[in-house]
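Input/output pair, single chain:
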Amino acid sequence: METRSTAPGWRCGSTGGAWDACACWSTGSTATSTRPRGSRVRYPGRIRPEDAEPGHGWPDQATAPVDRGCLAPSSEEAGRTAGGPEGRASRAERLRIRSGKLGTMREVLSDLVAEQQQLDQFLQRITVNKWNIRLPHDEWTIRDTISHLAHFQEYAHNVVAEDGAMLDDLDDYESIDDFLEIGIQRGRQMRPQDVIEWWRLGRAQVVDALSRATPSDRVPWVYSDMSTKTFATLQLAEVWAHGLDIYEAMEEELEDTDRLRHVIWFAHKTLPWAFDLAGYEYMEQVRIEGIGPMYAKYVAGPEDTDQLIRGPAGEICRVAVGRLHPDDAENVILKGEMAEIAFQEMRIF
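Output:
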């Protein structure tokens, strides 16, 4: 029977601040998410890499198949090339989306740039006196958010194009929040347009460096290393998540696009990591089926599992990036106990 209830037989107790890993026991009570309503997640884990248990770090793609075929355009490009309406995927693209594959490196980078440009264009409409508006449920402002993105692009470029030595800076700070504050304070000394230019320069350098790498190249990052393709997908998910915050602060709605398929894929890829942080064992594969714009179906996970998360891609992705509480995703259907736990604990950051 399909249900939206939480999983029977599990209970979570938060042992620290918001988003800390929780201790879980099988008690016959109802599972509740470890995330409080209204919280925002900005960074993976909020714990140092050296504190993670061996073998339980950021999801590794070393054994993932590498697509070395033709560099296909993004789905929006495919739709325009085929003469269809803008944003409409071709038949081949729709079949690929349903297969749950991430796609080529060029496609991911194309969608990353599109996501960045969409937010950039929206920022141009925000007057200077509104750049210090605080985000809902957060102490950051719009200026702080873009400063954070720009700050991390410098580190992203270093790990992709150089030796990644800048990551050693994290050892000088007591917590990741202390480290994030450096970029925030830097942006507060700049004019809004200068903050945008700072972000533009950094993201252009990162995309250029990623375009020169192969999809299987490894990128060292804060929590663990990952393939360049996964790293580019992480960048896309982060820009989209922060864009949601800024649109909400301006009392506007960010329209869903087919780029959410990347977030669906990443949300599924990080499920073992999310389970581990929450204190659960990922005992059975979960399948995610998200319905995107124009009824496109984004699938991640095996077909032969009876553990299913199905619903609007926008709702599933907002839960995955911590912008929607799982209990508020009213249109998502869950089948199976593991799927119910997965949806409560799902997180990309």
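The chain has a mean pLDDT of 78. The radius of gyration is 20 Å.
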